């Protein structure tokens, strides 16, 4: 059984001033996502960026007081990245791994102090080689995990846990009713958030930790 105590998000500790995306930016981001989805549906995985409430829920599992970088996989146009900055994570601590080169250009404009890498998140060991030189305090993922075989998802989880502090969270959202990585395991624990009904479509956040 997952340990229910892990399901509680950490309270916000140090909010920062960060301009909210304008309505025009949001509409442009949705258009970018839709175009990217039509071109490469198995890579993008969603037709719209994560909503504000879902992004905030994902970011809430990151404790800004812990040391080390925060790795984000598949940030897209940056809604979760923005939520992490609002959470109190200094942009310099962010390592953003994005496959889409157009999204990478956009992320570099919006978060100039973050490290933006165009690369394959599923080969995270090679992608982050020489970039992350200390244990990360969290990994946030918006990858479409269900497009990959279970063995590859488990390998990603193991690789990410190797890059983080013990007990650091791997945070993943899903639209599915089942977890993107099985909840029962002898090598990690899993907990879930309540369903985020205000997201379109409604989503849930899963958090995986290696004790």
From TrEMBL:
Q: Which UniProt keywords apply?
A: Methyltransferase, RNA-binding, S-adenosyl-L-methionine, Transferase
Where is the segment annotated Disordered? 1-22
Is this entry keyworded Hydrolase? no
The entry lists its GO molecular-function terms as:
methyltransferase activity; RNA binding
One Pfam entry for this protein is RrnaAD
Q: SUPFAM superfamilies in the record, alphabetically?
A: S-adenosyl-L-methionine-dependent methyltransferases
Tell me what this protein is called.
Phospholipid methyltransferase
């Amino acid at each position: 059984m997952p340990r229910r105590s892990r399901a509680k998000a950490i309270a916000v500790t140090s909010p920062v001033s960060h301009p909210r995306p304008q309505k025009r930016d949001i509409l442009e981001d949705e258009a970018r996502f839709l175009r990217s989805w039509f071109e490469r549906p198995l890579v993008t995985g969603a037709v719209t960026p994560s909503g504000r409430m879902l992004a905030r829920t994902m970011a809430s599992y990151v404790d800004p007081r812990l040391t080390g970088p925060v790795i984000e996989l598949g940030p897209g146009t940056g809604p979760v990245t923005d939520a992490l900055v609002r959470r109190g994570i200094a942009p310099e601590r962010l390592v953003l791994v994005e496959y889409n080169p157009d999204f990478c250009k956009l992320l570099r404009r919006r978060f100039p102090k973050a490290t933006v890498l165009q690369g394959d998140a599923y080969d995270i060991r090679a992608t982050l080689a020489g970039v992350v030189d200390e244990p990360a305090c969290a990994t946030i993922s918006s990858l479409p995990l269900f497009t990959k075989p279970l063995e590859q998802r488990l390998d990603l989880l193991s690789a990410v846990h190797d890059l983080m502090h013990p007990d650091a969270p791997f945070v993943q959202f899903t639209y599915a009713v089942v977890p993107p990585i099985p909840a029962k395991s002898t090598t990690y624990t899993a907990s879930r958030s309540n369903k985020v009904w205000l997201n379109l479509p409604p989503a849930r956040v899963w958090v995986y930790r290696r004790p």
